[in-house]
Amino acid sequence: MKRFLIIAAATLSCSAWAQTTANSAPTPAQNAQTLNIRSLAATCANCHGTNGKAVEGSAVVTLAGMPKDYIVAQMKAFKTGTRPATIMHQLSKGYSDAQIEQIATYFAAQKK
Ligand code: HEC
């Protein structure tokens, strides 16, 4: 039991170390702007899946690879109330038009 705990603790600290290293050493391409947009897009992941890929069998649509103009139009329609919704009409109000543009560009560039 004691040995198991030591191994478990060692494994945990290793993966924590690996994560810290990965996060603290961004490639040049991962500049502040890119990370900012990725975090914005990550706020959609709870429902629409990681990087906009909905879990198989999910009732919520996949955003990955969806045309940018379509996403922007839907978000604005949710925001203004012209498209009725159960959830999105509330969520969309939390994003500026500029943020919606950035999020839509991000998802449109993701593979389906
Ligand atoms: C809490 C869950 C949840 C989150 C978080 C969420 N969505 Fe949604 N989304 C839904 C649901 C549910 C629908 C279906 C419309 C409705 O009833 O609100 C939907 C629909 C949409 C649609 C319309 C899809 C179509 O086929 O017309 C778009 C676009 C969309 N969401 C974008 C986003 C974006 C962008 C974010 C992040 C900023 C986001 N959603 C975050 C639940 C969510």
What structural keywords apply?
112 residues, mainly alpha, Cytochrome Bc1 Complex, Chain D, domain 2, 60% helix, binds heme C
What does this structure look like?
The chain has 112 residues and is mainly alpha-helical. The protein has a single domain, classed as Cytochrome c-like domain (Cytochrome Bc1 Complex, Chain D, domain 2), CATH 1.10.760.10. The protein has helices spanning 2-24, 32-42, 45-48, 68-80, 88-91, 97-108. Helix 2 packs across helix 6 and helix 4 (68-80) runs antiparallel to helix 6. The longest helix is centred in the first third of the chain and has 23 residues, at 2-24. The protein is globular, with a radius of gyration of 18 Å. Residues 10-20 have low confidence and may be disordered. Residues 43-44, 46-48, 60-61, 63, 71, 74-75, 85-88, 91, 95, 103 line the site of heme C. The site of heme C has 18 residues, from helix 3, helix 4 and helix 5.
